[in-house]
Amino acid sequence: MRIAMIGSGYVGLVSGACFADFGHLVTCVDKDAAKIAALRGGEMPIYEPGLPELVASNVRQGRLTFSTELAGPVREADAVFIAVGTPSRRGDGHADLSYVHQAAREIGAALEGFTVVVTKSTVPVGTGDEVERILAETRPDADFAVVSNPEFLREGAAIADFKRPDRIVIGSEDERASQVMAELYRPLYLNQAPMLTTDRRTAELIKYAGNAFLAMKVTFINEIADLCEQVGADVQQVARGIGLDNRIGGKFLHAGPGYGGSCFPKDTLALIKTAQDHGTPVRIVETVVAVNDQRKRAMGRKIIAACGGNVRGKTIALLGLTFKPNTDDMREAPSIAIVQALQDAGARVRAYDPEGMTQAKGVLDNVVYCADAYDCATGADALAIVTEWDAFRALDLEEIKRRLKAPIIVDLRNIYRRDEVERHGFVYVGIGRTAGGVPARFGAAAE
Ligand SMILES: NC(=O)c1ccc[n+]([C@@H]2O[C@H](COP(=O)([O-])OP(=O)(O)OC[C@H]3O[C@@H](n4cnc5c(N)ncnc54)[C@H](O)[C@@H]3O)[C@@H](O)[C@H]2O)c1
């Protein structure tokens, strides 16, 4: 099958490369000429493990090409995927659908023969209807069907997620389109990936409901972590204790600095707006968003408290800036609010991230970027682990201690054992774990 992938970002590029790997002929299109030039030159515009090899091998075998021009690839395609961004609209939090609508207009102008137009971007319920309307308006004579096929890949594990998904959701009410979708994903259901076919609106809502649920799960354990600190319980054991219950499940129960990234923040907001517009507010999700927003900055205050309550003139070293490991994505990363809180309190910030520093430079001002974790710790008054990159899991703690001015570690991802760190003479502050089960108000000042 011939595929035109409109938008070659995290989702478009990964999906395009994976479909090519299944044997389809894919053109990844993007308006961003620099991105396409980089891809043609064999350079990846994003960091995603395994992607350079996958792209290179499919380019070599002639199944994957790149273009800034949409009309040609769309004309030849059996399926056109819309994988453009749907960020939060400035001001009100609704999903900004201008890129989707613009792509639909351009696709409509180029359609030839029966074509399935697939929204892979995360879009509010009813967007498929609007895409259909735009296509019909642009080209009343065109033969097409609009399908919803939300994407569930996670950055950092995107290729494995695409190739071995928990499920594939197809929102289609057109038999010809359903057949094209079945053919596109055939290699996957030979591997028995569950394929859920629904009407289009249901498919659109599944994506938002899924992300909102996961955001709620993370936020729930974060609040339990705060309670653990006050009562002298250990959130990791609480998470394990509840996660072993199959009805709850152990995933997404890691307490931390709050969720960020390119999806949860904007998707929860968009769901709230959709629900309000339909007179059925999702109060749980509204609360999740409010709690998470406050949490990110509160993590800055936690670091300040660990330094004795005052960081004016002090230097704080941050390890990890991206919203999670194995990506260079800085969108809505908790580090942004943490750096802001520290700088507002008069601290100087040094930071190191294995892959995210180029992107971080675009969003964080007045940060000293360092060569590695040890360089970052040098001369700092405290070290905070913000993102749990593997490179930070086995630091030489003696060396870190030698480099720091004061031996304080704030571990916002709970990747270290307290006793191990304390054995090296550090003051250790984790999330939802107090010293020896002592409630925070009776325990070490640092907590
Ligand atoms: N990033 C993720 O982990 C993830 C996971 C699942 C779903 N999604 C959803 O997928 C969609 C895309 O997300 P992303 O992270 O890949 O975004 P992104 O910002 O990385 O990429 C979007 C790309 O689309 C391009 N573009 C915009 N309008 C275009 C047009 N008319 N023609 C050609 N190119 C155009 C942009 O230049 C950009 O390169 C969003 O709706 C997002 O919510 C993202």
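^ nicotinamide-adenine-dinucleotide complex. Residues 6-12, 29-32, 35, 70, 83-86, 99, 102-103, 106, 121-122, 151, 153, 155, 262-263 surround nicotinamide-adenine-dinucleotide (CB under 6 Å). DSSP finds 18 helices and 14 strands in the chain.
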